[in-house]
Amino acid sequence: MTKLAQWLCGLALLGTAWATLALDPLGLHLPLPCQQVLWPFPVYLLVAFGCYSLATIGYRLATFNDCEAAAKELQEQIREARADLSRRGLKF
């Protein structure tokens, strides 16, 4: 199962649970404090997901590996390409 499918299944499960409790089709008659917390719950989840996403991106940027060997190889290829193009008459 892909990550997208996992997230969509979790979202569908939470959405179904929220709709069942918030819209009360089963006649559960939740107390007023529970209803007051339940209605903005999707917004809380959206904010939490945004925080999680920002934290994940920040962590991945902080632990990003530099590829010095690949950078040197790329610079060498650029020098070779410029030299080849200079021999063929292109001016930079």
Automatic annotation (TrEMBL):
Transmembrane segments: 43-62
Main function: Stabilizer subunit of the dolichol-phosphate mannose (DPM) synthase complex; tethers catalytic subunit to the ER.
Subunit-level organization: Component of the dolichol-phosphate mannose (DPM) synthase complex.
Protein name: Dolichol-phosphate mannosyltransferase subunit 3
GO cellular component: dolichol-phosphate-mannose synthase complex; endoplasmic reticulum membrane
Pathway: Protein modification; protein glycosylation
Organism: Platysternon megacephalum
Family: Belongs to the DPM3 family.
Claim: Oxidoreductase is one of the keywords in the record: no
Recorded superkingdom: Eukaryota
UniProt keyword Chaperone, yes or no: no
GO molecular function, one term: isomerase activity
Membrane topology field: Multi-pass membrane protein
GO terms (BP aspect): GPI anchor biosynthetic process
Subcellular localization: Endoplasmic reticulum membrane
Residue ranges the record marks as coiled coil: 64-91
Main localization category: endoplasmic reticulum
Signal sequence segment: 1-19
UniProtKB keywords: Coiled coil, Endoplasmic reticulum, Isomerase, Membrane, Signal, Transmembrane, Transmembrane helix
